[in-house]
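Ticket #4471: structure output looks truncated?

Reporter: J.K.
Steps to reproduce: submitted the chain below (179 residues) through the standard prediction queue, then opened the result file.
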Amino acid sequence: MTSHPQSTHASLAWYVVRTNPNCEGRAKTAMREAGFEPYCPMGRHERRCGRARRRVDVKRPLFCRYVFVGLDPASPPFGAVRRIDGVREFVGIDGTPVRIPWACIEALQCAEDMGVFDFRQSRQAIALEIGDGVVLVSGMFEGWEASVERVPSSKDDPVLLSVGSMKIQTPLDTVQRLA
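Returned output as attached by the reporter:
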């Protein structure tokens, strides 16, 4: 998780720029090198790669093709930002960039720091109660229906299930609640 220095950010005027496709990182780096303050909220995702289909954690921009930029409120240098590599245009109305309230930027930064944008399957909370019906979605008993015997106290603890006359422990991300 990253921490964002809020004292300097609050004094800036915030805008949104639209980037060229897949150029959020390039635009962000170039803006920082040019002396501007970019912010690109990131989400954590899980993707499968390779023949073994192993899971890999990746960070992706939360808003594809958009980056926030903090500028001097007295005289925002829109032209200089537009000329930055990877930047396509400012988001605005009738050609006038629209200012984003600091509270919106701060809320995004806080949510990112708290892990709200963590979309990895293994991190998704599943609200289970004792007696709930579940189906196993991976492992040796894939496709089998079970009943919850013990609810895990954290996401890393296994869930205890009753499958017929057997009791099994399995990671939380291998079960799916029945509708």
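Triage note (M.O.): checked the attachment and the full token line is present. The mean pLDDT is 87.
Status: closed, working as intended.
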